[in-house]
Design goal:
The protein is mainly alpha-helical. 49% of the residues lie in helices and 9% in strands. It is built from eleven helices and four strands; from the N terminus they run H-E-H-H-E-H-H-H-H-H-H-H-E-E-H. Strands 1-2 form a two-stranded parallel ribbon. It has a two-stranded antiparallel ribbon with strand order 3-4. Helix 1 packs parallel to helix 3, helix 2 crosses helix 3 and helix 6 packs across helix 11. The longest helix has 17 residues. The N and C termini lie far apart (59 Å).
């Protein structure tokens, strides 16, 4: 069985225990071994509280309860086995699980953890593309970082944003007075930007850090100047 891309590894471990329990003999005691301590802990907690946050976990707990009613309190035992330690059954299960990830899910599941994981992955991918910082850490001075974030998000002490939230009567740019003072306008369009060193016309061009690095020399030798950092350091949104 395969769960799809909107489920986590933990969801898969729980689903695996569910499958093992469903295939186990119904009239004898069962020992299920898993290499996921998190999944085992979740089963034990659900057994004590009677609450489970995903469907597979609820199904397992109902199945265990039904077996215990018929066969006694020791009808189902859960145990932990160390992963990747040449335990034959566990290694076979691991290979089957990897193969299942290549199959199209017949009944894909959407779980809370899966949604959080998918959203995190989406944000990471967005930060990798050109024009969105590419996920890198820049060692800029504080003012440059603050101005960059305000321009990139379009929020902060920008007239267009202040007008939108009712803090300003006029959305126009305080430097050129021709267009709304958005982050894009300040960073890429405003004529005042040319006066303080802007040499780019798009976010993608601006993100090419190597292109805007300049070598300069003083009494102590050569040093690198980041023209983008210098530009944002000179922006005044007061």
């Amino acid at each position: 069985m395969t769960l799809g891309k909107l489920a986590t590894v933990w969801d898969g471990e729980v689903c695996g225990v569910r499958g093992a329990l469903e295939d186990a003999p119904s009239e004898s005691n069962v020992l299920i071994l898993s290499d996921s301590q998190a999944a085992i802990a979740a089963f034990r907690k659900a057994g004590k509280t009677g609450r489970a946050r995903i469907a597979d976990l609820r199904r397992v707990m109902l199945d265990i309860k039904e077996r215990q009613t018929r066969l006694g309190p020791n009808a189902v035992s859960l145990g932990w086995v160390k992963a990747h330690n040449e335990v034959c059954g566990n290694e076979n299960a691991d290979q089957l699980a990897k193969h299942a990830t290549t199959l199209y899910p017949e009944d894909p599941q959407i779980t809370e953890g899966g949604l959080k994981q998918a959203w995190k992955r989406k944000r990471e991918e967005e930060r990798r593309v050109k024009g969105v910082g590419m996920g890198r850490v820049v060692k800029w001075n504080r003012k440059a970082r603050v101005m960059y974030v305000q321009c990139r998000t379009g929020k902060g002490n920008l007239q267009a944003w202040r007008h939108k939230i009712g803090k300003s009567d006029d959305p126009e740019c305080r430097k050129c007075g021709r267009y709304a003072e958005t982050g894009k306008h300040v960073a890429l369009v405003c004529t005042h930007g040319e006066d303080i060193g802007r040499r780019w016309g798009t976010w993608e061009d601006m993100d090419d850090r190597a292109r805007w690095a300049r070598k300069e020399k003083d009494a102590e030798g050569y040093y690198t100047v980041d023209l983008v950092e210098t530009f944002f350091s000179k922006i005044d949104l007061r």
